[in-house]
Design a protein that fits this description.
This protein is α/β, with parallel strands linked by helices and about 190 residues long. The protein has one domain: 3-Layer(aba) Sandwich (Rossmann fold), CATH 3.40.50. The chain is built from 5 helices and 7 strands; from the N terminus they run ββαββαβαβαβα. α4 links the parallel β6 and β7. The longest helix is centred in the middle third of the chain and has 17 residues. Bound molecules: guanosine-5'-triphosphate and magnesium ion.
C-alpha cells in the first residue's frame, strides 16, 4: 500500500464517535509508548499527530483520514500515573465503549515499548480484545533504543508474558524508520478484511 494522502479529521472527547462507512484501524497502548509517533511514521508525516515526551498527551480519540479511504484512530493512552482513580476508570470505560461499539473497526494494534515488560493493563487489553473477538496485533515500538540481542531478549519476555509467538509481533522504530513495509502490508490486509 502506498500512502498518498493523510489528514487530521476530528477529535472526539465523548462517546459521540465519528460515524462513517470507512474501515477503522485503531492504536492502543500505555501512555508514551509511541502511538502518535507511529501514526506519523505510517503516514510519512512529521507532525500529523502530536507527540510528546510528557505522558498523557493524547487525551482524546483522534481520527486521521488516510488515502481518503480509511481511518487511523489514535486512542488515549492508559497507565498514566498522574491521574485520579476516577479519571482512570472513566478512560477505561471510554476506550472500551469505542472498541465495543465501532462497527467498522478492522484491527486494533496494541503497542508495547520494547524496553518494558508488558503490564497487567497491557495483558488485560489483549484479553479484552480476544474476548470481544476484535482482530488485533501487537506492535513493538522503539527498537532503536536497544541492541539487537537486547531486542531479542525482550521479545522473549514479551511473548512469554502475553502468550504470543514471535511471528505475532511487528517490530518497529519510528525514530529509525524500521518496520514500515511490514506495517503497511498489515494495515492493507486489515483495511480490506
Ligand atoms: P500518549 O499520547 O501520551 O499516550 O503517548 P503516545 O503513545 O502517543 O507517545 P508519543 O508518540 O507521543 O511518543 C512518546 C515519546 O516517545 C516521545 O518522546 C517520542 O519521541 C518517543 N518515541 C516514539 N517513538 C519512538 C521510537 O521509535 N524511538 C525512540 N527512541 N523514541 C520514540
Ligand atoms: Mg499520543
Amino acid at each position: 500500500m502506498l500512502i498518498k494522502s493523510a489528514e487530521f479529521l476530528k477529535s472526539v472527547a465523548d462517546t459521540n464517535f465519528y460515524q462513517s462507512n470507512m474501515s477503522e484501524i485503531a492504536l492502543v497502548g500505555r501512555s508514551n509508548v509511541g502511538k502518535s509517533s507511529l501514526i506519523n511514521f505510517i503516514t510519512n508525516r512529521r507532525k500529523l499527530a502530536h507527540t510528546s515526551s510528557t505522558p498523557g498527551k493524547t487525551r482524546l480519540i483522534n481520527y486521521y483520514l488516510v488515502n481518503k479511504s480509511f481511518l487511523l484512530v489514535d486512542l488515549p493512552g492508559y497507565g498514566y500515573a498522574e491521574v485520579s482513580k476516577k479519571e482512570k476508570t472513566n478512560w477505561a470505560e471510554y476506550l472500551e465503549t469505542y472498541l465495543k461499539t465501532s462497527q467498522n473497526l478492522k484491527c486494533v494494534y496494541l503497542l508495547l515499548d520494547i524496553r518494558r515488560t508488558p503490564t497487567n493493563q497491557d495483558e488485560q487489553m489483549l484479553q479484552f480484545l480476544y474476548y470481544n473477538r476484535i482482530p488485533c496485533k501487537v506492535i513493538v515500538t522503539k527498537i532503536d533504543t536497544l541492541s539487537r540481542s537486547q531486542v531479542n531478549n525482550q521479545l522473549i519476555i514479551i511473548c512469554n508474558k502475553l502468550g504470543l509467538n514471535r511471528e505475532d509481533i511487528i517490530i518497529t522504530s519510528s525514530a529509525d524508520k524500521k518496520g514500515h513495509k511490514e506495517l503497511l502490508e498489515n494495515i492493507e490486509h486489515y483495511v480490506n478484511s
